[in-house]
Amino acid sequence: MQFLWHLFLHQIQMYQLSRLLHDYHRDLHSHLEQQEIGPSLYATPWFLTLFASHFPLGFVARVFDMLFLQGSEVIFKVALSLLGSHKPLILQHDSLESIVDFIKTTLPNLGLVQMEKTINQVCEMDVSKQLQAYEVEYHVLQDELLDTPPTLNQQQRAAQLERTNQSLRQQNLDLLEELQ
């Protein structure tokens, strides 16, 4: 059960990151969308390990410091800052493989100047209201998906299955009568 809760939270976080990326770096968001690269392809290890899986220890220590001071929104701000500061380089890549490879291997090789720039950007950002709005938006979209009536094809298929089921019931009754 706890696993499902974490999976649900992760889906919300990936939606929030996608929306933030759309708001702050629309051209990068569009480029990633064109290549069918969702945030879960590159940001899952960042969120699960708080950047410790790919980034230098000094950078991770700074992220942890900010996390203790500002809360979990720091993870979003770091991800947004990293992607934004490397946007020109990411936009040069034109395939799923090369983009994901760049984000997973080249992006974590931060120099001290880039690391400091990222930390400063994170300290200046405020995305808490947007994160709350996007979480509500995510829940509303999920509720709408659940409440949407099935399409006509699905309704026709359900009716056909119901007729088939009724026919099989009748055949079973007929066979039972014959047997008796």
TrEMBL record:
Residues 1-71 form the Rab-GAP TBC domain. Residues 151-178 form a coiled coil. Keywords: Coiled coil. It comes from the Eukaryota. This is TBC1 domain member 1. It comes from Ameca splendens.
